[in-house]
């Protein structure tokens, strides 16, 4: 579990790459500068951890590309103490970025193996999400709602209704929508019934899977 000056140097380079690709939110870039992404990957990927790429993390899943993590985090407009629901904890890297931004993070993962891994990893790194949950993200976390914002980190074929219902008025839902290719979509809740929709181009995610049971 080492984080060295060499890793820090690679992170600084990664942040320059993200800036060149158009990420402007300083607090997001700062969080990426601080989070040791190599510790969220199997050690065999250590040398590649600061490339702007997705990598396998087990259970057929991937850690999102840093650009995607930065892009989604920027769209959330995270403020300190914001209550954020994340669907798809995966490696926990996106969770860590949100925690570093000062948010209270509630994260749901449906793969037991990954849920267990992150439950052990976060305390080791002194990263403290408010709540980690093993379950189906399509349902959200009604017991902890409403949320200031919601981020879905897997490709969703449609917007799950419970997620819209669990968003505060004025809150932001960031969700990649589509089957093969996803369109990054931002919904801003205007009132009880109305949502404003913005679209931000194509991304590729592993699918948000519907319940196995
Ligand atoms: N934020 C993660 C992304 C992991 S990939 C990271 O940066 O590592 C997407 C994750 O969503 C996978 O871990 C996958 O198991 C999870 N997932 C897929 N369908 C889900 C569902 N219905 N509910 C919760 N998590 C789901």
Quick take:
By secondary structure, this protein is α/β, with parallel strands linked by helices.
Structural write-up:
This protein has 213 residues and is α/β, with parallel strands linked by helices. It has one domain: Vaccinia Virus protein VP39 (Rossmann fold, 3-Layer(aba) Sandwich), CATH 3.40.50.150. Helix content is 29%, strand content 26%. The protein is built from six helices and nine strands. The strands form two sheets. It has a seven-stranded mixed beta sheet. The protein has a two-stranded antiparallel sheet with strand order 1-2. A hairpin with a 2-residue loop joins strand 1 and strand 2. Helix 1 runs antiparallel to helix 2. S-adenosyl-L-homocysteine binds next to strand 2, helix 4 and strand 4.
Could you tell me how far the N terminus lies from the C terminus, measured between alpha carbons in angstroms? Answer: 37 Å
Question: Low-confidence parts lasting 5 or more residues at pLDDT below 50?
Answer: none
The string of secondary-structure elements, in order, is HHEEHEHEHEEHEEE
What is the CATH fold-level name?
Answer: Rossmann fold
CATH class: Alpha Beta
* Major beta sheet, strand line-up: 5-4-3-6-7-8-9
What hetero molecules are bound to the protein chains? S-adenosyl-L-homocysteine
Number of domains: 1
Could you give the topology of this structure?
Elements: H1 5-20, H2 26-34, E1 55-58, E2 61-63, H3 66-76, E3 83-87, H4 93-100, E4 104-109, H5 112-124, E5 131-134, E6 147-152, H6 161-165, E7 167-177, E8 182-189, E9 195-203
Parallel strand pairs: 3-4, 3-6, 4-5, 6-7
Antiparallel strand pairs: 1-2, 7-8, 8-9
Bound molecules: S-adenosyl-L-homocysteine.
């Amino acid at each position: 579990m080492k984080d060295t000056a060499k890793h820090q140097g690679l992170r600084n380079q990664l942040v320059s790459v993200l800036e060149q690709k158009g990420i402007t939110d300083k607090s997001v870039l700062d969080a990426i500068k601080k989070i040791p992404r190599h510790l969220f990957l199997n050690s065999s990927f250590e040398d590649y951890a600061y490339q702007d790429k997705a990598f396998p993390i087990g259970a057929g899943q991937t850690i999102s590309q840093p650009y995607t993590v930065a892009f989604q985090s920027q769209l959330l407009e995270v403020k300190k103490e914001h209550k954020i629901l994340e669907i798809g904890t995966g490696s926990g890297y996106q969770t860590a970025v949100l925690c570093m931004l000062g948010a209270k993070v509630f994260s749901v993962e449906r793969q037991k193996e990954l849920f267990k891994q992150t439950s052990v990893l976060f305390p080791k790194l002194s990263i403290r999400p408010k709540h980690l949950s093993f379950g189906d993200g399509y349902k959200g976390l009604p017991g902890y709602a409403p949320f200031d914002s919601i981020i879905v980190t897997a490709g969703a074929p449609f917007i799950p209704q419970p997620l819209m219902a669990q968003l505060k008025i004025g809150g932001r839902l960031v969700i990649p929508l589509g089957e093969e290719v996803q369109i990054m979509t931002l919904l801003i809740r205007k009132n009880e019934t109305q949502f404003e929709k913005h679209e931000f181009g194509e991304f590729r995610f592993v699918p948000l899977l519907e319940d196995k049971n």
